[in-house]
Write a structure and sequence with these properties.
This protein is an alpha+beta fold. Helices cover 51% and strands 15% of the residues.
Length: 465
């Protein structure tokens, strides 16, 4: 990857529908200049805290604060080594904080990081938060889950579906904080190509949406639109956990004319000065010899000397100019990506299909009917303005366009859903403060579920490729 490639990203974290607080955290640190880029690279971090109440929140916050701060101080190390040391330092900080207070004992967090640098994409991971890469309508999981299910899959050589029948889905085998020493997975560098899309997410997203669904949405929408639709779908499937996602898109490399830097300008100035200096010196020598020849009454020799020196000077200037041009061109030639020994842990198709769009059609219809039945406060004018474009895209079978328009439709309808969530959380807090029936706080949530006739899915739908 190169400094000139523009980065577009969006980061979004949501509490979900089943948790009382958000124990997820995320951070994005883009390099402000070329020098910082050469020493470090762009950093993305997602952490999913564990321990309940403020304990998980504290652990995840320490992680997303400590990793970037430490990485910035370790510029003398290679990127992979610096990333590993930064995550290990975050583990030390969380463990130390946990041992200082009995209420924080054994607090922990996952920590998944992506470093986009001159070497490529480097992944650092502890826990079951994930890093994906989307390329050519396929989604690749670059990280490896540190969970009981994945260990069972590897040890018994079985599929994830079979492993889920033997193991709980929410048990992880590695995290930052509980132990003084942690084993960090450093994977890569993976080559980065123009138009690659990277996703970091907590299991609140990957547990509700399949890899294919994540790939379809993030591969066809902008980072902002993709992050919103991903979170909205996870919430519509129950929002059983906090949901955090970072979507990052890598742009095209700059052209030669757009990459002109101060070093190139300085080189051109120095070369021009050298050419002028040598030219004047040579002209003075040749001129002096020619005058001496004329004085000695040898005009033929003088004219021959002038003509020969003129042609030699032109040849030298052209040769010097071409050599300097070739050097600048060589300096600006992009470095080939480093071949990585790391391979994606699994690959899934990420092409938008008619079946997936039909699923969105059905889901939108249920959500729309629920909003009407329960009198939600929805910006219906915006809805009526966008919906004709959805119908037109469906009639023309332009599924990518339909996906974009449906992402906007869901954003409008989710206004009512989030209002229901706020009302439910308010009722729950009131019930606790007044020692009332704790189930009263969930009336709005149950009403929403019964109105839409859906329940939380244990597994995301499977879409044909």
């Amino acid at each position: 990857m190169h400094w000139e490639q523009k980065i577009r990203y969006a980061a979004l974290s949501d509490i979900g529908f089943r948790r009382q607080n958000n124990e997820d955290a995320c951070a994005v640190h883009l390099c402000p200049d070329r020098e910082t880029w050469n020493q470090r690279g762009h950093l993305f971090v997602v952490a999913d805290g564990m321990g309940g109440h403020a304990v998980g929140e504290l652990a995840s916050k320490i992680a997303v604060d400590t990793v970037p701060h430490t990485l910035d101080k370790l510029r003398q190390l290679a990127p992979a080594e610096a990333l590993r040391a930064s995550i290990e330092h975050a583990n030390t900080a969380i463990h130390k904080r946990g041992t200082e207070n009995h209420d924080f004992l054994h607090m922990g967090t996952t920590c998944t990081t992506l470093l986009l640098c001159s070497q490529g994409a480097i992944v650092g991971n502890v826990g079951d938060s994930r890093v994906y890469r989307i390329r050519q309508r396929h989604i690749e999981q670059l990280s490896r889950d540190h969970s009981l299910i994945w260990e069972t899959m590897e040890q018994r050589n079985m599929s994830q579906r079979d492993a889920e029948q033997f193991c709980p889905r929410n048990i992880i085998t590695r995290s930052l904080g509980p132990e003084a020493v942690v084993q960090v997975d450093i994977l890569g560098p993976f080559p980065v190509l123009p138009s690659d899309v990277f996703i970091l997410c907590s299991d609140g997203l990957s547990g509700q949406l399949s890899d294919t669904e994540i790939g379809i949405i993030a591969g066809h929408l902008s980072p902002v639109e993709a992050s919103r639709l991903l979170v909205n779908l996870a919430n519509l499937r129950g929002g059983a956990d906090n949901i955090t996602v970072i979507v990052t898109s890598v742009g095209e490399p700059a052209t030669d004319t757009a990459v002109a830097d101060s070093d190139g300008v300085e080189d051109r100035g120095e070369t021009g000065l050298k050419i002028a200096t040598y030219g004047l010196l040579s002209a003075g020598i040749v001129g002096g010899l020619s005058v001496a020849a004329f004085v000695a009454q040898q005009p033929t020799f003088a004219w021959s000397l002038l003509a020969g020196s003129t042609f030699a000077g032109i040849f030298w200037m052209l040769r010097t100019s071409f050599r300097h041009h070739d050097k600048r061109k060589q300096d600006r030639t992009p470095n080939l990506p480093i071949v990585s020994t790391s391979q994606p842990t699994r690959i899934s198709p990420a092409k938008v299909t008619a079946q997936f769009i039909q699923y969105l059609v059905k889901l939108e219809s249920e959500l729309h009917q629920t909003a009407l039945n329960q009198g939600w406060s929805i910006p219906w004018d915006d809805y009526e303005r966008i919906f004709p474009a959805v119908k037109q895209a469906m009639n023309d079978r332009q599924y990518s366009v339909a996906l974009l328009e449906y992402s906007r439709i869901f954003e409008i309808l989710m206004v009512g859903v989030f209002q229901q969530r706020q009302q439910s959380q308010h009722q729950t807090r009131w019930s606790k403060e007044n020692h009332s029936d704790p189930k009263a706080g969930w009336e709005s949530r149950l009403s929403l579920e019964s109105g839409m006739r859906w329940r939380r899915r244990e597994k995301p739908p499977v879409w044909p490729s």
